[in-house]
């Protein structure tokens, strides 16, 4: 299980400082949608330039115009980019094709995906499937928990409001990637928060109680 640090609602210099604090305790860096929307793909290239050895995910949340959006994300230095699972299948297939050509990876964001759509997505097993509780759902309290049960996918990621207290529940699904944003980035002590989550995950992996 890897930890992906999601960087949202901050400037590029703040994002770089945040990663410097947390870098020993995280496996992947996510350049959040909010950074990409506010500062463009420079947010991807500047963060990749600063941390060339860490895999970088660009949270593009692509819904259309797949070849263009995935090409600019990968050319800016992203190692993986996101496409929405509710998008037309041709969009998802184009993302997979661009990623294959450039030897990069795709994460499919399952936000608002219906069971019917999910069945169709299961053919794309090279992708990472991200179960995502959205920021708006988190903030409205309408749906604050991950679904129960594990999706029949090879590569699973979990995102949305995951914190130290909800780690055991998330880890129970044995995801490849656990995405943590605010619980680290908005903590008073970023390094301590990242270390606490990293240590808890190590403990869970070795089968001890947290
Ligand atoms: O995709 C996102 C927002 O759309 C974030 O990456 C995801 O929600 C993780 O951040 P947090 O832990 O703060 O919820």
UniProtKB/TrEMBL annotation:
Residues 2-197 form the Orotidine 5'-phosphate decarboxylase domain. SUPFAM superfamilies: Ribulose-phoshate binding barrel. This is 3-hexulose-6-phosphate synthase. Keywords: Carbohydrate metabolism, Lyase, One-carbon metabolism. It comes from the Bacteria. Pfam families: OMPdecase. The gene is hxlA. Belongs to the HPS/KGPDC family. HPS subfamily. Pathway: One-carbon metabolism; formaldehyde assimilation via RuMP pathway; D-fructose 6-phosphate from D-ribulose 5-phosphate and formaldehyde: step 1/2. Its EC number is 4.1.2.43. GO terms for molecular function: hexulose-6-phosphate synthase activity. It catalyses: D-ribulose 5-phosphate + formaldehyde = D-arabino-hex-3-ulose 6-phosphate. InterPro entries: 3-hexulose-6-phosphate_synth (IPR017553), Aldolase_TIM (IPR013785), HPS/KGPDC (IPR041710), OMPdeCOase_dom (IPR001754), RibuloseP-bd_barrel (IPR011060). It is an enzyme of class 4 (lyase). Transmembrane segments: none annotated.
């Amino acid at each position: 299980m890897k930890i992906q640090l999601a960087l949202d609602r901050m400037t590029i210099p703040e994002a770089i400082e945040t990663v410097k604090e947390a870098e020993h305790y995280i496996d992947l860096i996510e350049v959040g949608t909010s950074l990409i929307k506010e500062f463009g793909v420079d947010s991807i290239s500047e963060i990749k330039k600063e941390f060339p050895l860490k895999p970088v995910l660009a949270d593009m949340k692509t819904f259309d115009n797949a070849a263009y959006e995935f090409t600019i994300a990968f050319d800016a230095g992203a190692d993986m980019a996101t496409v929405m699972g509710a998008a037309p299948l041709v969009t998802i297939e184009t993302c997979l094709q661009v990623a294959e050509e450039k030897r990069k990876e795709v994460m499919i964001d399952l936000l608002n995906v219906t069971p019917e759509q999910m069945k169709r997505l299961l053919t794309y097993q090279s992708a990472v499937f991200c179960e995502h509780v959205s920021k708006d759902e988190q903030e409205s309290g309408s749906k604050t928990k991950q679904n129960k049960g594990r999706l029949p996918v090879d590569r699973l990621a979990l995102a949305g409001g995951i914190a130290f207290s909800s780690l055991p529940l998330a880890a129970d699904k044995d995801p490849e990637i656990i995405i943590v944003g605010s619980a680290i980035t908005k903590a008073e002590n970023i390094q301590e928060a990242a270390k606490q989550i990293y240590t808890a995950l190590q403990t869970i992996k070795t089968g001890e109680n947290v």
